[in-house]
Amino acid sequence: MSDPAPAPIQTRAGLVAGHAHGALTFYRDIPYAAPPVGALRFAPPAPVAPWSGVRTASGANAPQRTRTVPQLDAAPLIGHGWAKGDDYLTLDVWCPAGDATARPVMVFIHGGGFVVGSKNASVQDGASFARDGIVYVAIQYRMGVDGFLPIPGVPTNLGLRDMIAALGWVRDEIAAFGGDPANVTVFGESAGAMAIADLIASPLARGLFQRAIVQSGHGGMTRSVPVAQRLVKAMAKRLGITPDRAGFDSVAPGEPLLDAVEQVSLPTTRLDLREADGREPVFGISRFVPVHGDDVLPLAPLDALKQGAGAEVDLLIGSNAEEMNLYLVPSGVRDKLNTAVGKLLAWVVLRKSQPRAWSVLKAYGMGSGKRAGQALTDAMADLVFRWPARRYAEEHRGRTHMYEFEWRSPRFDGQLGASHGMELPFVFDSLATCTGNEGLCGTAPPQELATRVHAIWVQFARDGSLPWAPFDRDTRTVYRLAAGEAVTEPPMPAAAFLP
Hints:
Carboxylic ester hydrolase; Rossmann fold; hydrolase; Carboxylesterase_B_AS; EC 3.1.1.-; single chain; globular; 3-stranded mixed β-sheet; alpha/beta; hydrolase activity
C-alpha cells in the first residue's frame, strides 16, 4: 500500500504537489524562473508565470551531452544526460513530513564542468539530509553556451544569475516547506563548488545564504571577459554564425550546438585562453566558466575576498587528496606519460596552462625518481584544486574551516584513490549508488565513514559548528575526514606557481 499523498503547497506562483516517501516528502521540478526560451533564452531569469491547478513535474534538464569514462559508471555523479524540454529552471525540495517549522535549509548546486550535470544524479539524493531534519533543495541552471558564454549583447554569467534567482526563491518560499530562510547553507561540488565560491564574492548574492560548503572548488576558475570572448569567436566560427547575440539566437539549443561545444572542448583544439600572466586558470578542464568584470563578479573572487566580500558567510571548504586521478587514471593518460618520452609530453600538457611548467614538474619530483605521469598528476591535483582552495581559505575574512578527504578507492587496482568526486557518496550517505565492480567506490566502501562525514555536514548546516579549529594562513589547520584528525598542513610546492 502506497503512502498517502501530502496536501499540495501553495507558492506565490501556484500549487505544487508533493510525494510521500515514508516520513519524508518530495516536491519535484518546481520552477523558480520562467523557461529560458524565445526572447528569454539569453536574458536574466524572469519571474514564473502563475498557473492554475496543481503543478506537475516537467522532468527536463539543461541541454548537454555526457561522456563515458572508461570502466567507470559516471551516471550516479552526472546523471543520464539531456532530458529534453524547455522548462528546466527548476528545483527539487526534500523535507521531513510533519508540521515543524524553521528547519535548517541546505541548497545543493551540482557539478559537471558547467556543461553537464543534473539535480537528478542519484549520488546526490537529498532524502538522507531530509531524514536528518534538513529541508534540502537541489537546483538546475543554464550551462554551456546559454549559461557561461559571454556573447556580445547578452548579459554575462547567466548560469550564476540562475543560481541567484533560485536562492531568491528559497528566501521567499522555503518557509512554506518548513524551512528557515534565515538558516540557509549552500553547498556544491566541482563546478557547483566553483560557482558557490563565486557567489560568496558576488554583491548580487549577498544575504541569500548564511553558510557555504565548497567541495573541490574555489574562486580561481574565472576568466576575464576579453579572454572568454575568444571562445565566443571560436564557437561562432564552427557554427558559421556571427559572434553576437543575433548569431547565437539563430542556432537552437540542440545537437549542432552540442557538437560545437564538444569540438572546442577537445584538448587537441587550438584555442588560447591564457590570461595576461600566461596562465590558463581552468587548465583545460572546461572551456565554459564564469567571467569576472561584470555586475555579478565585479572583481576576480580572490580580489573581492581581500576587500571583505563574503565575510559574513561561514565557510567550510576542502578538496580530495588525489583529485586529478579521476581525469588521468581511467583515461590511461598518466600511465602513457610514464614512458621514455613522458617528460617532454608532460611538459607539453602542462605548458598550455602554466608558463613555468618545467619548474613545476621538477618541484613535484620529475627527474628525482618520480615518473613523469605521476609528477604531472600530483602537480595538477595541487595546481587545479588543492592549493587554490587553500588560497581561497586564506583570503576569506569570515570564519573558515578546511577539510581534506583522503579515503582511497580500490578501483583501477588501487590507483583511483581519493580522486575528484570521491567524497560525494560519503557526504550524501549514498554509498549504494557508487558501489560495485564499476562503481566509483569499489565493492565495499566504509559505511562508518559515510555516517560520520554526513553527520559533519548536517551539524554545520544546523548551527555552523565543526569538530576542529578554524583555518588561517598561520595555523593552517586541515581536518582529514577519513583519519578523523586535524593536522597542521605546510604550504604546497604549487604555492610558488599560483597567485
